[in-house]
Design a protein that fits this description.
This protein is an alpha/beta fold. It folds into 3 domains: 145 residues, Rossmann fold (3-Layer(aba) Sandwich); 74 residues, no CATH class; 190 residues, Rossmann fold (3-Layer(aba) Sandwich), CATH 3.40.50.300. The chain has 14 helices and 18 strands. The strands form 3 sheets. Strands 3-4-2-1-5-6 form a 6-stranded mixed beta sheet. It has a 6-stranded mixed beta sheet with strand order 7-10-11-12-9-8, with no helix packed on it. Strand 8 and strand 9 form a beta hairpin.
Protein backbone atom coordinates (compact mmCIF):
# COMPACT_ATOMS: atom_id res chain seq x y z
CA UNK A 1 0.00 0.00 0.00
CA UNK A 2 1.54 3.26 -1.13
CA UNK A 3 1.58 6.04 1.40
CA UNK A 4 0.11 9.38 0.20
CA UNK A 5 2.47 12.34 0.34
CA UNK A 6 1.25 15.12 2.62
CA UNK A 7 0.12 18.36 0.96
CA UNK A 8 2.79 21.01 0.65
CA UNK A 9 2.65 23.31 3.66
CA UNK A 10 3.03 27.03 2.93
CA UNK A 11 5.24 28.69 5.51
CA UNK A 12 4.10 32.22 6.24
CA UNK A 13 6.82 34.83 6.68
CA UNK A 14 7.53 35.87 10.26
CA UNK A 15 5.60 39.04 11.08
CA UNK A 16 4.24 40.71 14.16
CA UNK A 17 0.84 38.97 14.34
CA UNK A 18 -1.42 36.67 12.33
CA UNK A 19 -5.14 37.34 12.79
CA UNK A 20 -7.69 34.63 11.92
CA UNK A 21 -11.03 36.28 11.07
CA UNK A 22 -14.36 34.81 12.15
CA UNK A 23 -17.31 35.31 9.77
CA UNK A 24 -19.20 37.69 12.07
CA UNK A 25 -16.35 40.23 11.88
CA UNK A 26 -16.68 40.46 8.08
CA UNK A 27 -20.49 40.55 8.29
CA UNK A 28 -20.28 43.35 10.84
CA UNK A 29 -17.67 45.41 8.97
CA UNK A 30 -16.50 44.28 5.49
CA UNK A 31 -13.73 46.90 5.57
CA UNK A 32 -12.20 45.06 8.57
CA UNK A 33 -9.96 43.41 5.95
CA UNK A 34 -8.03 46.70 5.78
CA UNK A 35 -8.05 47.61 9.50
CA UNK A 36 -5.18 45.51 10.84
CA UNK A 37 -2.29 47.78 9.78
CA UNK A 38 1.01 45.84 9.41
CA UNK A 39 -0.42 42.50 10.57
CA UNK A 40 -1.34 39.53 8.37
CA UNK A 41 -4.85 38.08 8.00
CA UNK A 42 -5.93 34.47 7.50
CA UNK A 43 -9.42 33.47 6.36
CA UNK A 44 -10.44 29.81 6.93
CA UNK A 45 -12.64 27.94 4.45
CA UNK A 46 -15.40 27.73 7.10
CA UNK A 47 -15.56 31.55 7.14
CA UNK A 48 -16.10 31.62 3.36
CA UNK A 49 -18.81 28.94 3.67
CA UNK A 50 -20.66 30.99 6.29
CA UNK A 51 -20.34 34.15 4.15
CA UNK A 52 -21.94 32.21 1.29
CA UNK A 53 -24.79 31.04 3.54
CA UNK A 54 -25.57 34.61 4.65
CA UNK A 55 -25.35 36.44 1.32
CA UNK A 56 -29.08 36.24 0.45
CA UNK A 57 -31.54 38.86 1.68
CA UNK A 58 -31.86 42.61 2.08
CA UNK A 59 -30.71 42.93 5.68
CA UNK A 60 -27.60 44.88 6.70
CA UNK A 61 -25.85 41.59 7.54
CA UNK A 62 -26.57 40.17 4.05
CA UNK A 63 -25.32 43.34 2.36
CA UNK A 64 -22.11 43.22 4.40
CA UNK A 65 -21.59 39.52 3.55
CA UNK A 66 -21.91 40.34 -0.17
CA UNK A 67 -19.55 43.32 0.15
CA UNK A 68 -16.94 41.21 1.97
CA UNK A 69 -17.17 38.61 -0.82
CA UNK A 70 -16.68 41.34 -3.44
CA UNK A 71 -13.55 42.62 -1.67
CA UNK A 72 -12.13 39.10 -1.52
CA UNK A 73 -12.98 38.43 -5.20
CA UNK A 74 -11.32 41.68 -6.29
CA UNK A 75 -8.17 40.92 -4.30
CA UNK A 76 -7.88 37.35 -5.57
CA UNK A 77 -8.57 38.33 -9.20
CA UNK A 78 -6.06 41.20 -9.31
CA UNK A 79 -3.62 39.99 -6.67
CA UNK A 80 -0.06 39.38 -7.80
CA UNK A 81 1.82 36.32 -6.55
CA UNK A 82 -1.18 34.01 -6.12
CA UNK A 83 -3.19 32.99 -3.05
CA UNK A 84 -0.55 30.69 -1.56
CA UNK A 85 2.05 33.44 -1.28
CA UNK A 86 -0.39 35.89 0.31
CA UNK A 87 -2.13 38.88 -1.25
CA UNK A 88 -0.85 42.36 -0.46
CA UNK A 89 -3.64 44.32 1.27
CA UNK A 90 -2.13 47.75 0.57
CA UNK A 91 -2.67 47.31 -3.18
CA UNK A 92 -6.45 46.97 -2.75
CA UNK A 93 -7.47 49.08 0.24
CA UNK A 94 -6.12 51.55 2.76
CA UNK A 95 -2.37 52.15 2.33
CA UNK A 96 -1.92 51.75 6.10
CA UNK A 97 -2.78 48.02 5.72
CA UNK A 98 0.70 46.76 4.85
CA UNK A 99 0.14 43.11 5.79
CA UNK A 100 -0.91 40.18 3.62
CA UNK A 101 -4.12 38.19 3.27
CA UNK A 102 -3.94 34.38 3.29
CA UNK A 103 -6.78 32.00 2.43
CA UNK A 104 -6.98 28.38 3.53
CA UNK A 105 -5.79 26.38 0.49
CA UNK A 106 -5.47 22.91 2.06
CA UNK A 107 -7.44 20.57 4.28
CA UNK A 108 -6.46 20.97 7.92
CA UNK A 109 -7.09 18.07 10.25
CA UNK A 110 -6.43 19.74 13.56
CA UNK A 111 -6.88 17.63 16.67
CA UNK A 112 -9.79 19.11 18.62
CA UNK A 113 -11.03 17.69 21.93
CA UNK A 114 -13.62 14.94 21.40
CA UNK A 115 -16.33 16.98 23.19
CA UNK A 116 -16.33 19.60 20.40
CA UNK A 117 -18.45 18.57 17.38
CA UNK A 118 -16.26 18.52 14.27
CA UNK A 119 -19.08 19.46 11.88
CA UNK A 120 -19.72 22.86 13.40
CA UNK A 121 -18.21 25.85 11.57
CA UNK A 122 -17.00 27.53 14.78
CA UNK A 123 -15.08 24.40 15.77
CA UNK A 124 -13.54 24.08 12.29
CA UNK A 125 -12.24 27.65 12.65
CA UNK A 126 -10.82 26.78 16.09
CA UNK A 127 -9.08 23.76 14.53
CA UNK A 128 -7.50 26.09 11.94
CA UNK A 129 -6.25 28.43 14.69
CA UNK A 130 -4.69 25.46 16.57
CA UNK A 131 -3.02 24.25 13.38
CA UNK A 132 -1.60 27.70 12.58
CA UNK A 133 -0.31 28.06 16.15
CA UNK A 134 1.61 24.76 15.82
CA UNK A 135 2.84 25.70 12.36
CA UNK A 136 4.08 29.17 13.41
CA UNK A 137 5.28 28.97 17.01
CA UNK A 138 7.44 32.06 16.48
CA UNK A 139 4.53 34.48 15.96
CA UNK A 140 1.26 35.24 17.81
CA UNK A 141 -1.80 33.66 16.12
CA UNK A 142 -4.99 35.39 17.30
CA UNK A 143 -8.63 34.62 16.56
CA UNK A 144 -10.78 37.75 16.01
CA UNK A 145 -14.50 37.19 16.65
CA UNK A 146 -17.56 39.19 17.70
CA UNK A 147 -19.03 35.97 19.16
CA UNK A 148 -18.41 35.92 22.93
CA UNK A 149 -18.92 32.13 23.23
CA UNK A 150 -16.45 31.53 20.41
CA UNK A 151 -13.85 33.59 22.27
CA UNK A 152 -14.57 31.71 25.52
CA UNK A 153 -14.09 28.35 23.73
CA UNK A 154 -10.84 29.60 22.22
CA UNK A 155 -9.52 30.67 25.65
CA UNK A 156 -10.57 27.29 27.12
CA UNK A 157 -8.43 25.58 24.46
CA UNK A 158 -5.47 27.83 25.25
CA UNK A 159 -5.83 29.93 22.09
CA UNK A 160 -5.53 33.71 21.88
CA UNK A 161 -8.82 35.42 20.98
CA UNK A 162 -9.94 39.05 20.79
CA UNK A 163 -13.05 41.09 19.99
CA UNK A 164 -12.99 43.34 16.91
CA UNK A 165 -12.29 46.78 18.37
CA UNK A 166 -11.79 48.93 15.27
CA UNK A 167 -15.52 49.70 14.93
CA UNK A 168 -15.68 51.33 18.36
CA UNK A 169 -16.07 55.10 18.20
CA UNK A 170 -15.11 55.25 21.85
CA UNK A 171 -13.42 52.66 24.05
CA UNK A 172 -14.98 53.89 27.28
CA UNK A 173 -18.46 55.43 27.03
CA UNK A 174 -17.84 57.20 30.35
CA UNK A 175 -15.59 59.49 28.31
CA UNK A 176 -18.38 60.28 25.82
CA UNK A 177 -18.93 63.99 25.25
CA UNK A 178 -21.81 65.16 27.48
CA UNK A 179 -22.37 68.52 25.81
CA UNK A 180 -22.16 70.40 29.13
CA UNK A 181 -19.22 71.51 31.26
CA UNK A 182 -19.18 72.74 34.87
CA UNK A 183 -17.00 75.83 35.18
CA UNK A 184 -14.59 76.00 38.14
CA UNK A 185 -15.55 78.26 41.05
CA UNK A 186 -12.63 80.61 40.27
CA UNK A 187 -13.57 80.87 36.57
CA UNK A 188 -14.21 84.64 36.57
CA UNK A 189 -11.04 85.33 38.60
CA UNK A 190 -8.86 83.46 36.10
CA UNK A 191 -10.72 84.40 32.90
CA UNK A 192 -12.24 87.81 33.68
CA UNK A 193 -9.16 89.93 32.98
CA UNK A 194 -9.66 92.20 29.92
CA UNK A 195 -13.13 90.65 29.46
CA UNK A 196 -15.39 92.19 26.82
CA UNK A 197 -19.18 92.14 27.20
CA UNK A 198 -22.02 93.20 24.90
CA UNK A 199 -25.69 92.52 24.26
CA UNK A 200 -27.16 91.27 20.99
CA UNK A 201 -30.46 89.61 20.10
CA UNK A 202 -31.61 89.32 23.70
CA UNK A 203 -28.39 87.54 24.80
CA UNK A 204 -25.38 88.83 26.71
CA UNK A 205 -22.03 87.89 25.17
CA UNK A 206 -18.75 87.60 27.09
CA UNK A 207 -15.35 87.37 25.40
CA UNK A 208 -13.10 85.68 27.97
CA UNK A 209 -9.41 84.74 27.98
CA UNK A 210 -7.76 82.07 30.10
CA UNK A 211 -6.44 78.51 30.46
CA UNK A 212 -9.85 76.81 30.01
CA UNK A 213 -10.58 78.40 26.62
CA UNK A 214 -8.58 75.93 24.45
CA UNK A 215 -10.62 73.02 25.93
CA UNK A 216 -14.01 74.53 25.10
CA UNK A 217 -15.93 73.23 22.06
CA UNK A 218 -18.31 75.17 19.82
CA UNK A 219 -21.95 75.01 21.03
CA UNK A 220 -20.90 73.36 24.31
CA UNK A 221 -23.04 74.41 27.27
CA UNK A 222 -21.21 75.76 30.33
CA UNK A 223 -22.60 76.48 33.77
CA UNK A 224 -21.54 77.84 37.12
CA UNK A 225 -23.89 77.20 40.05
CA UNK A 226 -23.20 80.01 42.53
CA UNK A 227 -25.32 82.64 44.30
CA UNK A 228 -26.23 83.87 40.83
CA UNK A 229 -26.24 80.81 38.49
CA UNK A 230 -24.53 81.35 35.14
CA UNK A 231 -25.67 79.24 32.17
CA UNK A 232 -24.17 79.92 28.74
CA UNK A 233 -23.23 78.42 25.40
CA UNK A 234 -19.85 78.60 23.66
CA UNK A 235 -20.33 80.60 20.44
CA UNK A 236 -16.67 81.00 19.48
CA UNK A 237 -13.68 78.96 20.56
CA UNK A 238 -10.08 79.00 19.44
CA UNK A 239 -6.76 79.56 21.11
CA UNK A 240 -6.80 81.43 24.42
CA UNK A 241 -10.09 83.28 23.84
CA UNK A 242 -13.73 82.15 23.76
CA UNK A 243 -17.10 83.86 23.39
CA UNK A 244 -19.88 82.76 25.73
CA UNK A 245 -23.54 83.70 25.18
CA UNK A 246 -26.19 83.52 27.91
CA UNK A 247 -29.15 81.21 27.32
CA UNK A 248 -32.87 81.80 27.14
CA UNK A 249 -34.45 80.52 30.36
CA UNK A 250 -37.06 78.00 29.23
CA UNK A 251 -37.87 77.18 32.86
CA UNK A 252 -40.02 80.33 32.94
CA UNK A 253 -43.65 80.01 31.86
CA UNK A 254 -43.42 83.08 29.60
CA UNK A 255 -40.79 81.26 27.51
CA UNK A 256 -42.73 77.97 27.36
CA UNK A 257 -42.39 75.81 24.25
CA UNK A 258 -45.85 74.54 23.22
CA UNK A 259 -46.83 74.73 26.89
CA UNK A 260 -43.72 72.85 28.07
CA UNK A 261 -41.15 74.39 30.41
CA UNK A 262 -37.71 73.03 31.34
CA UNK A 263 -37.70 71.23 34.70
CA UNK A 264 -33.94 71.08 35.15
CA UNK A 265 -30.69 72.52 33.85
CA UNK A 266 -30.10 69.89 31.13
CA UNK A 267 -33.65 70.23 29.79
CA UNK A 268 -33.05 73.97 29.47
CA UNK A 269 -29.83 73.26 27.53
CA UNK A 270 -31.74 70.83 25.28
CA UNK A 271 -34.50 73.36 24.49
CA UNK A 272 -31.88 76.01 23.68
CA UNK A 273 -30.30 73.62 21.16
CA UNK A 274 -33.64 72.46 19.72
CA UNK A 275 -35.04 76.00 19.31
CA UNK A 276 -31.87 77.41 17.74
CA UNK A 277 -32.40 77.54 13.97
CA UNK A 278 -28.62 77.83 13.43
CA UNK A 279 -28.13 74.34 14.88
CA UNK A 280 -28.98 71.77 12.17
CA UNK A 281 -28.09 68.60 14.08
CA UNK A 282 -29.00 67.83 17.70
CA UNK A 283 -28.33 64.64 19.69
CA UNK A 284 -30.07 63.99 23.01
CA UNK A 285 -28.93 61.10 25.20
CA UNK A 286 -30.56 60.04 28.43
CA UNK A 287 -32.28 57.22 30.25
CA UNK A 288 -36.03 56.62 30.12
CA UNK A 289 -38.11 59.48 31.50
CA UNK A 290 -35.62 62.32 31.04
CA UNK A 291 -37.91 64.07 28.53
CA UNK A 292 -36.03 63.52 25.25
CA UNK A 293 -39.09 62.85 23.05
CA UNK A 294 -41.38 65.38 24.78
CA UNK A 295 -38.90 68.27 24.46
CA UNK A 296 -38.10 67.37 20.85
CA UNK A 297 -41.76 67.19 19.81
CA UNK A 298 -42.66 70.41 21.66
CA UNK A 299 -39.81 72.26 19.91
CA UNK A 300 -40.79 70.70 16.58
CA UNK A 301 -44.45 71.74 16.88
CA UNK A 302 -43.52 75.27 17.94
CA UNK A 303 -41.19 75.74 14.96
CA UNK A 304 -43.54 74.02 12.49
CA UNK A 305 -46.94 75.44 13.45
CA UNK A 306 -46.05 78.76 15.14
CA UNK A 307 -42.76 79.95 13.65
CA UNK A 308 -43.23 78.21 10.25
CA UNK A 309 -39.48 77.39 10.16
CA UNK A 310 -40.20 73.83 9.01
CA UNK A 311 -43.05 72.50 6.85
CA UNK A 312 -43.61 69.23 8.76
CA UNK A 313 -42.22 66.83 11.36
CA UNK A 314 -40.99 63.42 10.20
CA UNK A 315 -40.48 60.78 12.88
CA UNK A 316 -38.83 57.41 12.41
CA UNK A 317 -37.23 54.70 14.50
CA UNK A 318 -35.58 51.28 14.25
CA UNK A 319 -38.22 48.54 14.51
CA UNK A 320 -36.43 46.19 16.92
CA UNK A 321 -38.93 44.38 19.22
CA UNK A 322 -38.15 43.99 22.93
CA UNK A 323 -39.92 40.61 23.16
CA UNK A 324 -41.17 38.19 20.49
CA UNK A 325 -42.12 39.80 17.18
CA UNK A 326 -45.89 40.04 16.56
CA UNK A 327 -45.54 39.20 12.86
CA UNK A 328 -46.75 41.07 9.80
CA UNK A 329 -48.91 44.15 10.25
CA UNK A 330 -51.68 45.25 7.87
CA UNK A 331 -52.12 48.66 6.29
CA UNK A 332 -50.04 51.44 4.78
CA UNK A 333 -46.47 52.32 5.76
CA UNK A 334 -47.75 54.76 8.39
CA UNK A 335 -50.27 52.25 9.79
CA UNK A 336 -47.58 49.57 10.02
CA UNK A 337 -45.33 51.98 11.94
CA UNK A 338 -48.04 53.08 14.40
CA UNK A 339 -47.51 50.19 16.91
CA UNK A 340 -43.85 51.27 17.13
CA UNK A 341 -44.85 54.87 17.77
CA UNK A 342 -46.44 54.53 21.20
CA UNK A 343 -43.94 57.11 22.50
CA UNK A 344 -45.22 59.61 19.92
CA UNK A 345 -48.86 59.12 20.94
CA UNK A 346 -48.05 59.35 24.67
CA UNK A 347 -46.19 62.61 24.22
CA UNK A 348 -48.84 64.10 21.93
CA UNK A 349 -51.41 63.43 24.67
CA UNK A 350 -49.27 65.46 27.09
CA UNK A 351 -48.71 68.28 24.59
CA UNK A 352 -52.40 68.44 23.70
CA UNK A 353 -53.40 69.01 27.33
CA UNK A 354 -51.14 72.01 27.86
CA UNK A 355 -53.82 74.51 26.75
CA UNK A 356 -56.78 74.28 29.16
CA UNK A 357 -58.62 77.32 27.79
CA UNK A 358 -59.58 75.81 24.44
CA UNK A 359 -62.06 73.23 25.74
CA UNK A 360 -62.74 69.78 24.32
CA UNK A 361 -63.57 70.95 20.77
CA UNK A 362 -60.49 73.14 20.59
CA UNK A 363 -58.25 70.30 21.78
CA UNK A 364 -59.76 67.94 19.18
CA UNK A 365 -59.10 70.49 16.42
CA UNK A 366 -55.54 71.02 17.67
CA UNK A 367 -54.97 67.26 17.76
CA UNK A 368 -56.10 66.91 14.13
CA UNK A 369 -53.88 69.83 13.08
CA UNK A 370 -50.88 68.32 14.88
CA UNK A 371 -51.44 64.89 13.33
CA UNK A 372 -51.63 66.42 9.86
CA UNK A 373 -48.13 67.89 10.32
CA UNK A 374 -46.45 64.76 11.75
CA UNK A 375 -45.49 61.98 9.34
CA UNK A 376 -44.34 58.59 10.59
CA UNK A 377 -41.88 56.91 8.21
CA UNK A 378 -40.04 53.59 8.13
CA UNK A 379 -36.23 53.54 7.98
CA UNK A 380 -36.42 50.90 5.22
CA UNK A 381 -37.46 53.47 2.60
CA UNK A 382 -35.12 56.33 3.47
CA UNK A 383 -32.33 55.63 0.98
CA UNK A 384 -32.29 58.08 -1.92
CA UNK A 385 -34.67 60.58 -0.31
CA UNK A 386 -33.98 64.27 0.34
CA UNK A 387 -35.91 66.17 3.00
CA UNK A 388 -36.24 69.93 2.48
CA UNK A 389 -37.36 72.24 5.35
CA UNK A 390 -38.31 69.25 7.50
CA UNK A 391 -37.85 68.53 11.22
CA UNK A 392 -36.53 64.95 11.20
CA UNK A 393 -36.59 62.95 14.45
CA UNK A 394 -34.64 59.65 14.68
CA UNK A 395 -35.95 57.89 17.79
CA UNK A 396 -34.17 54.92 19.44
CA UNK A 397 -31.04 55.90 17.49
CA UNK A 398 -28.81 53.73 19.70
CA UNK A 399 -29.88 50.69 17.62
CA UNK A 400 -28.41 52.14 14.40
CA UNK A 401 -24.96 51.25 13.10
CA UNK A 402 -22.58 54.11 12.15
CA UNK A 403 -23.21 53.32 8.47
CA UNK A 404 -27.00 53.48 8.87
CA UNK A 405 -26.66 56.72 10.83
CA UNK A 406 -24.64 58.27 8.00
CA UNK A 407 -27.25 57.13 5.45
CA UNK A 408 -30.04 58.82 7.41
CA UNK A 409 -28.31 62.08 8.34
CA UNK A 410 -27.21 62.64 4.74
CA UNK A 411 -30.94 62.68 3.74
CA UNK A 412 -31.11 66.24 5.10
CA UNK A 413 -31.61 68.89 2.43
CA UNK A 414 -31.62 72.71 2.77
CA UNK A 415 -33.38 74.00 5.89
CA UNK A 416 -33.80 70.59 7.53
CA UNK A 417 -33.02 69.90 11.18
CA UNK A 418 -32.13 66.36 12.34
CA UNK A 419 -32.64 65.33 15.97
CA UNK A 420 -31.30 61.96 17.20
CA UNK A 421 -32.69 60.56 20.44
CA UNK A 422 -31.54 57.49 22.34
CA UNK A 423 -30.20 55.74 25.39
CA UNK A 424 -26.98 53.81 24.76
CA UNK A 425 -27.76 51.59 27.77
CA UNK A 426 -30.76 50.14 25.88
CA UNK A 427 -29.22 48.59 22.75
CA UNK A 428 -31.39 45.76 21.40
CA UNK A 429 -29.46 44.70 18.28
CA UNK A 430 -26.75 41.99 18.18
CA UNK A 431 -23.11 42.99 17.51
CA UNK A 432 -23.73 46.60 18.63
CA UNK A 433 -22.30 47.77 21.93
CA UNK A 434 -22.27 51.13 23.70
CA UNK A 435 -18.88 51.87 22.14
CA UNK A 436 -19.81 50.91 18.55
CA UNK A 437 -23.39 52.26 18.37
CA UNK A 438 -24.12 54.78 15.62
CA UNK A 439 -25.38 57.21 18.27
CA UNK A 440 -22.04 57.14 20.12
CA UNK A 441 -20.32 57.54 16.75
CA UNK A 442 -22.18 60.71 15.71
CA UNK A 443 -21.92 62.32 19.15
CA UNK A 444 -18.15 61.85 19.05
CA UNK A 445 -17.69 62.89 15.40
CA UNK A 446 -20.06 65.89 15.33
CA UNK A 447 -18.92 67.57 18.56
CA UNK A 448 -17.38 70.98 18.03
CA UNK A 449 -19.09 71.61 14.67
CA UNK A 450 -20.62 75.09 14.55
CA UNK A 451 -24.08 73.77 13.54
CA UNK A 452 -24.46 70.79 15.90
CA UNK A 453 -25.45 70.52 19.54
CA UNK A 454 -25.49 67.71 22.08
CA UNK A 455 -26.98 67.31 25.56
CA UNK A 456 -26.92 64.33 27.90
CA UNK A 457 -30.06 64.44 30.05
CA UNK A 458 -29.37 62.97 33.48
CA UNK A 459 -32.41 63.57 35.64
CA UNK A 460 -35.65 61.63 35.18
CA UNK A 461 -38.82 63.73 35.24
CA UNK A 462 -41.42 61.02 34.57
CA UNK A 463 -42.64 60.14 38.07
CA UNK A 464 -41.28 59.23 41.50
CA UNK A 465 -42.10 55.58 40.75
CA UNK A 466 -40.16 55.60 37.44
CA UNK A 467 -37.20 57.40 39.02
CA UNK A 468 -36.98 54.94 41.91
CA UNK A 469 -37.41 51.93 39.60
CA UNK A 470 -34.59 53.18 37.32
CA UNK A 471 -32.24 53.29 40.33
CA UNK A 472 -33.39 50.25 42.34
CA UNK A 473 -34.22 47.64 39.68
Amino acid sequence: MTQRKPAAVVRLPAASKLFVLDTNVLMHDPTSLFRFEEHDLYIPMATLEELDNNKKGMSEVSRNARQASRYLDEMITHGAGGIAGGIELAAHGDKSATGRLYLQTEAINGELPARLASGKSDNQILAVVMHLQELHPQRPVILVSKDINMRIKAHALGLAAEDYFNDKALEDTDLLYTGARALPADFWDRHGKDMESWQQGGCTFYRVRGPLCPKLLLNEFVYLEADRPFHAQVREAGGRTAVLATLRDYAQQRHNVWGITARNREQNFALNALMNSQIDFVTLLGQAGTGKTLLTLAAGLMQTLEHKTYTEIIMTRVTVPVGEDIGFLPGTEEEKMNPWMGALEDNLDVLNKTDDDTGEWGRAATRDLIRSRIKVKSLNFMRGRTFIHKYLILDEAQNLTPKQMKTLITRAGPGTKVVCLGNIAQIDTPYLTEGSSGLTYVVDRMKGWSHSGHVTLVRGERSRLADYAAEAL
